[in-house]
């Protein structure tokens, strides 16, 4: 009888551990590898990309596989990925940059504004457990790390922007004091400008850097989930220069 109780206790312990691990780990990322477009052999490569846009070659390579690829995001040490733009903000939650089904999703630009003309670009991506897409952006929730990664680049085929981080925000979408519809602020005009946008985010501010900002500045926001909360978003907001 005693052995039976011990065995039952061990089974319950193992089941409990399995449930905890399943809750903490997003298995989707481990069961579906991210598909990449391989580089062509050196002999088959086109002329090298001009120094003014070193990302043009990679963007074109992915566009050959998926016409929705519109840009490249490069934050050294954290993110280097193609960016896609679909006809809605749902498709690329479950499809990668090659256009194939993948629960890891892709980094995708809000569908409502073109990359080269929008005043404010919002780019979404999953915070997975496997280091893919925007998984590393939660490292920026402390001042030291944000300052160390304060600069990144966003490039389309037409141009390259040097982006300087203004602040990091951790917005609880269920908290009325913090909620702000950041993804509806894509075009400046009327009461909408860069300074008003930052004011709207202020209640969820976690880190603020000394990057100067003017009302007419064009911004980019990287948006991913905060897995430590039920319904929250980590937002990295930067000036596009």
Automatic annotation (TrEMBL):
Which keywords has UniProt assigned to this entry?
Hydrolase
Q: Under which name does UniProt file this protein?
A: Class B sortase
TM ranges? none
Residues spanning the signal sequence: none
Q: Name one Pfam family in it.
A: Sortase
| UniProt entry tagged with the keyword Lipid metabolism | no
Q: Which CDD domains match?
A: Sortase_B (cd05826)
Q: Which InterPro entries match?
A: Sortase, Sortase_dom-sf, SrtB
Q: Which domain of life is it from?
A: Bacteria
């Amino acid at each position: 009888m005693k052995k039976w109780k011990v065995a039952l206790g061990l089974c319950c312990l193992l089941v409990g551990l399995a449930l905890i691990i399943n809750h903490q780990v997003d298995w989707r990322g481990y069961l579906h590898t991210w598909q990449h477009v391989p580089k062509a052999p050196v002999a088959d490569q086109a002329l090298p990309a001009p120094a003014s846009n070193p990302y043009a070659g990679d963007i074109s390579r992915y566009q050959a596989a998926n016409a929705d690829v519109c840009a490249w995001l490069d934050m050294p040490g954290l993110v280097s990925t193609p960016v896609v733009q679909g006809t809605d903000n749902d498709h690329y939650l479950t499809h990668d940059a090659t256009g194939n089904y993948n629960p890891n999703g892709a980094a995708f630009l809000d569908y409502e504004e073109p990359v080269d003309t929008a005043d404010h670009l919002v780019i979404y991506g999953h915070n997975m457990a496997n280091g893919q897409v925007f998984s590393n952006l939660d490292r920026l929730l402390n001042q030291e790390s944000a300052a160390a990664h304060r600069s990144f680049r966003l490039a389309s085929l037409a141009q390259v922007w040097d982006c300087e981080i203004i602040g990091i925000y951790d917005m609880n979408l269920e908290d009325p004091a913090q909620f702000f519809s950041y993804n509806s602020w894509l075009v400046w005009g009327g009461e909408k400008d860069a300074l008003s946008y930052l004011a709207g985010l202020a209640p969820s501010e976690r880190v603020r850097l000394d990057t100067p900002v003017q009302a007419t500045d064009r911004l980019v926001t990287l948006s991913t989930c905060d897995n430590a909360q039920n319904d929250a978003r980590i937002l990295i907001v930067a000036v596009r220069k």
